[in-house]
Structures are given as C-alpha cells and as structure tokens.
Amino acid sequence: MEIQIKEISFGNKIKELTVTSYVDSLAKYRADLNNALDLKEKIPIFLDTNILLRYYSISFKSRKALLSFLTKHKKQIIITSQVQKEFIKNREDIIERYFEDTLAKLKDNFKDDIINKIKSYTDNNKILLDDFTFLEEKLSKISMEADNTYIQLAKEVEKIKEKLPQTKYEDELLSVIKEMTLLNNLTEEDIKFLHSEFDTLRKNIDVSKIKSEIGKPQRSFPGLGDLIEKPDNPYGDYILYHEMIKYIKTENKNAIFLTYDTTKGDWLKVNKEPHSHYIQSAFLATNQSLFFLDAERFFSTHLKLHFESLVLLPIDYYSPKLEYEKDFILDFIGLERIIRTIAEYVDIEKYEYKPVVSIIRDFLDRNYIDKKTRDEFLVLNKIKNLLTHAHDRTNIESINKEEFFLWNEKLQIMIATMNKLYTIL
What we know:
Layout: H1 5-8, H2 10-13, H3 19-37, E1 45-47, H4 49-54, H5 60-72, E2 77-79, H6 81-124, H7 126-129, H8 133-161, H9 164-169, H10 172-178, E3 181-182, H11 188-202, H12 210-215, H13 226-229, H14 236-251, E4 255-259, H15 276-286, E5 290-294, H16 295-303, H17 323-345, H18 356-365, H19 371-387, H20 393-397, H21 401-424
Parallel strand pairs: 1-2, 1-4, 2-3, 4-5
C-alpha cells in the first residue's frame, strides 16, 4: 500500500507527541546511536547538498580522502531528488569560483601580504637602512626571491586552472554518485501538500525574531531558517526531510543524515545536538530513528580530517561553548543577511552564492562604503572564522571575555552601518 505523505508528515506528527513517544523515541535513538556512528549494519546514509558541493571547494588532496569515503560507502548513500536538484543547480558555480576566486586570491594575497609589505618596509625605512647595510642586502635578496616565487606561483595557478574543464566534465565524483541510490519518491501531490503544510507552520513565526524563534522548544521545523536565507522558495529542507522519512518508512530501517548546514538551527541546535521533537516526529512516522549528524564532527572522527571549504560561503558550522560566542556568530549571520539583502537590491550578480567578503568588495568598488568599513568588516569576518572552527578552540580561548565584548560592540556598529546603507540606497 502506497504511503500517504500526510500520514507521516512533520506537521501532523508534531501534534501527536506524548510522554510515551518522548521516552520511546529517545530510548531507541540512544540505543542505536553508536552503531549508527560506526556505520554498522550498512545503515543508509543521506547526504545534504552541502556535502557534495564541499568536494569542489576543498584542496585536491582533501578531495581524494572525501572521494574515498564516498566510494567506500556508495551502496549505503542515498541522494534524494531535492539534493540532486540543488547539486546540479550549484555544482558548476562552486567549481568556477574555486578556480577563479580562490586560486586568484592565493596569488593576489602573496603579492599583497608578502611582496608589497617587503617593499613598503624597505621604502619606509630607506634612510635608516643606510646604517644597516646587512639588512638592506638581505631585504633585497628576500624581495628578489619573493618576486621569483610569485612568478612560479602564478604559473602553477594557471596550470591548475587548466583543470577546470576536466573537473567539470570528467568528474570522478559524478561517476560515484551515479552508483549511489538516487531517490525520487515524492509525487507532485506530495510536494503540493508539503508546501501547504510548510506555509501553515510558518504563519506562527515572527521572521524578524527568527533567531529566538528557532531556539524555542518544539518551535523549529526543517527549513525554518530559509524563511530568511531563501524567502522566495524556502521549501527545500522540508521536502528533503520527508523524502528521508518516506524512505525510512518504506524500508523499515534507521538512517543517518549528514549535513554541514548547522548554523541556521533548523537541522541541529546551536550545540550541534538534534532537536528532540525531530527525533520524536521521525519515530512516530516510521517507528525508526533518523540520526541528524554534524558532518564536521563525523568526518573528523572517521577520517581525522576537516574538509574546510576554500570557497568563501555563508557560515557552515560552528562550535560555541560560551553564550557570548554563540551570540556573536548568530549576530554575524544576521549581518550577512543584511549584506545579501543590499546586494539583491542593487542587483549584484549571483549575490545568493557570492562570498559575503566579495560582496563587501563590490560595495567598496561602487563607493557604497569606504576602505575603513571594508577593513573593519574583514577583521570581524576573521573573528567569525575563528569561532566557526572547532579545531581552533585553543586560539578562541586565548581571547578574554572583555575582548569579545569589544568585538561584539564593533559588530553591532557594523550591523547599524549596513542597515543605514540599506535605507540610503
């Protein structure tokens, strides 16, 4: 008998939560979690789109490790129809940005951070260097070596750029994906129903206070964060959730869901733990467990690697331990949204996918902001990047509470600056 989506939907199951479902679902989740984490019994693995796209934004050495994992477990991995669509839509853009933006940045940063600074130091101390001839000679040699290194780097960058067509059209990952389970288990009527149910759930949400809404007990639902991120079409994650639930119900098996999308709070809580009402809803719909896992932690455990994106994307994950760290990150997410809203308003091309740092540079080029504002944003962005990497805890903890409050004040000023810019434009 065909499974009716409304009988297993999140919106309906959330109404059925009881003490019994709470106890039973969490007991099963805990009992089966270790086996799931160890990938025992060939447990089905659902991948979020960002797992597949991350492959194209990491170093080629890291790609081999990720590809090896995906190849090893390809018979367990399931790619839903929603993920397939998002992957196809964004794949080539991510590839091009890696080759164009990231590699260009490597070359340009070498020139800006090394060559130009050596020259600047030499020029600013020209008179004094007359009394330190040994230093002047060494700086001259270093400068010459740096120039030669830059020429060599530029050539190597161009060589790697020549791989762009091969990466696009002779892609090992695509070959592996074809051998995974490609799911298409929702009908058009299912999709229409889910759109309608999502719209019903969103009616009670104050989008202007979405940060606090997501944190409220049993308030979050898949796709809630996209009311701000993708207001014109926020349904993707809600559809993805039900593709997974329907598969689990059909196969009568537990499953894993891996995602890097942990900042919005609508897949995982800010501490990267699952929402208990998601566990209960999945259990009530399927009598099985869907394990919501942070991909950063998962790959760190299984492969001892962090697949850190070299393409500047919106924040993917974070590991705050203190409340003021969490507040800084969430406020920075709000700042990014304001910046992207401005970018959309002034018709910056591909603003949805463009790194926010690049958008700020566009603002500077258009004289919307001055260099001081750009530089202040770049410093705040560095603080955000530090906070969003779990393996940077030592560096994070070297910053005292007072310093964080100072950075937060600067962040609030930047938010006010961008809000003012929006009103002016």
